[in-house]
Amino acid sequence: MSLLPVEHFTHPHPIILHNDAINPKYLCEGCMTYGYGQRYHCHACTFNLHEYCGTCLKILSSFMHPDHSLVLIERDGLHERVCNICCDPIEGLSYRWCELCKFNVHPICTQLPKTLNHILHQVT
Fold first, then answer.
1. Where in this chain does the record put each DC1 domain (predicted)?
2. 3-class SS at 33?
3. Residue 23 lies in a domain
4. If phi over 0 gives left and psi between -120 and 50 gives alpha, with beta otherwise, what is residue 86?
5. d(CA 59, CA 97)
6. What is the pTM of this model?
7. Helices and strands (H and E) in the chain: how many
């Protein structure tokens, strides 16, 4: 774990990778969804980012939307949007492409795998 401060375009102060065992739950102020455990943190003003939101790419190719690359945008305040993966409202950073596709996704939701194995759904 690096304790070197990093800069992020969403915040004016340096942030450091941090793990708070006493208060592990936090609101990511990048994508505005909750997180748990390790995150980027600003000790000057208690700003938090998911570890992924602190390092996510500006342009992303994903199996979730294979027709276009996804572009990271800050909240535009002009449109009410919903994540096409978790169906929660998007209130902060998100990936999206063209208005024609209307595909939007939280950065943290892009980290979900293409397939899951679950004990309650055994494939034989």
1. 9-53, 64-109
2. coil
3. yes
4. alpha
5. 10
6. 0.78
7. 0, 12
